[in-house]
């Protein structure tokens, strides 16, 4: 069976989609799975052994461009795919498999995709409360799976593999200290400060970890670099040498490898959080307005800290510098306690 998956466009969603690929391979061991996704996803897909190849989606997020999607579909028709799974809910995301004449095209109804999808599922959100459950459910016949309780357990969570030699090479390439164990911080969040633990809390935690013999490495995109600099500036002068701000300085591939080399990770609700979970790193995930009830970190080694309930759709917090009070109220001491639980022997 040859399968084309139209993958998500966000890091966290892409990581959770691996549960579908793992499930498909478990059900159909000889299946060949290709995933169409933005080019930046390749470093993630290349570490998923279930994926045969990443097929680049050249169109930007939000672009309709029906003619170009038709051209892509006609080009992919020669691959002879038997099935397609469309993970985004948009109308446009279902066009390529339709134009490729793939016989069976599966996905949730989404934006009224009648005709484009011929194995159309109507989503009961209460029956499948987690995004990962919604992905995995597509692997099974819709007459068999009516709710998350019908899914085979345990779910096959995302897993990324990184070799020890890769870790050592990356540590050396970035000049990180080989004698101090690393704790990774992911202080950014896609939609601004309302989803971020305050930089001064990160700095307090970093200072304590450095005093215990750790080095702290900050990860994120270029737009998170300034947040990393705020954390650095808050540290004692003689501690800054043990904190490295790599936000904006790594490619995604390098960030994955270095996160795999960390003894533990502290992260806001972000794509990097989901990567750390898939790497099976001890992880403390910090939630505020966004809810872990839909997209939690999928790992037995993850601990979620959240002080409020429900989902709050806010882009700017209710406190100074745009932070949300619920995240301000999570103390560095609380996070340190969770880290000590995950890593029973802190320090060196």
Automatic annotation (TrEMBL):
SUPFAM superfamilies (UniProt xref): UDP-Glycosyltransferase/glycogen phosphorylase
InterPro entries: Glyco_trans_9 (IPR002201), LPS_LOS_Heptosyltrfase (IPR051199), RfaF (IPR011910)
A GO CC term attached to the entry: cytosol
Lineage: Bacteria, Pseudomonadati, Pseudomonadota, Gammaproteobacteria, Enterobacterales
GO molecular function list: ADP-heptose-lipopolysaccharide heptosyltransferase activity
Family: Belongs to the glycosyltransferase 9 family.
UniProt organism field: Erwinia sorbitola
Any GO BP annotation: lipopolysaccharide core region biosynthetic process
Identification of the protein by name: Lipopolysaccharide heptosyltransferase 2
Keywords, sorted A to Z: Glycosyltransferase, Transferase
Catalysed conversion reaction: an L-alpha-D-Hep-(1->5)-[alpha-Kdo-(2->4)]-alpha-Kdo-(2->6)-lipid A + ADP-L-glycero-beta-D-manno-heptose = an L-alpha-D-Hep-(1->3)-L-alpha-D-Hep-(1->5)-[alpha-Kdo-(2->4)]-alpha-Kdo-(2->6)-lipid A + ADP + H(+)
EC id: 2.4.99.24
Name of a matching Pfam family: Glyco_transf_9
Matching PANTHER family: ADP-HEPTOSE--LPS HEPTOSYLTRANSFERASE 2, TETRAACYLDISACCHARIDE 4'-KINASE-RELATED
Entry superkingdom: Bacteria
